Every structure is written in C-alpha cells, then in structure tokens.
Amino acid sequence: MKNSKFVFNKLTKIFEQGLITSKDLGSEILSILKSKRDEIVFRMKLTSKEEFEVLLKRVENIEKKISLLQEKSKKKTKRAKRS
To answer: What is the pTM of this model?
Structure first.
C-alpha cells in the first residue's frame, strides 16, 4: 500500500505541474520506476554488474578445471580384466 501511494503521489505531482503530453508522462513514469528500482537494489545490497561479471568468469574457470580433473580421473581408472 505504501508503494502504491508513492506512485500515485508522484503521478498527481506530474499532473499538477502540467505535463500534458503522453511522451512526457511516459518518460516521467519511467524515471520514477527506475529510481524506485535503484532504491530497492541499494537496499538489497546486490553486486554491481562489474562484480557479477568477474564472479561469473571465476566460476567458469573453476568449472573448466573441475571438468578437466574429472576427465583425467576417468582416464586413470582402468577396469580389471576378468580371467
């Protein structure tokens, strides 16, 4: 309810200021929503895009190393022949 009141208050302020065209109204609504999104992301303490890309590369490297080690271990283990 609090968030909807925030949006409605912003919209009423826009109408009071005299923004009549739909293009201005659309851009103003987008800017309001973007600022609200940024506020939520800041509160959640998420990583930035750069940090995410670095972590993604590290995970990919680790996955490659794991797959190589698994392949090596499969090659080393041989089955005993039955006589």
So the answer is: 0.39
The three-state (H, E, C) secondary structure of 29-76, written as one string: HHHHHHHHHHHHHHHHCCCCHHHHHHHHHHHHHHHHHHHHHHHHHHHH
- Give CA angle at 19 (16, 25), nearest 5°: 115
Distance in angstroms (rounded) separating the CA atoms of residues 18 and 10: 13
Q: pLDDT class for 60, splitting at 50, 70, 90?
A: very high
What is residue 46's three-state secondary structure?
A: coil
Measured between its terminal Cα atoms, the distance across the chain in Å is 77
Q: How confident is the model at residue 66 (pLDDT cuts 50, 70, 90)?
A: very high
Do residues 67 and 60 lie in contact, with contact meaning Cβ atoms separated by under 8 Å?
no
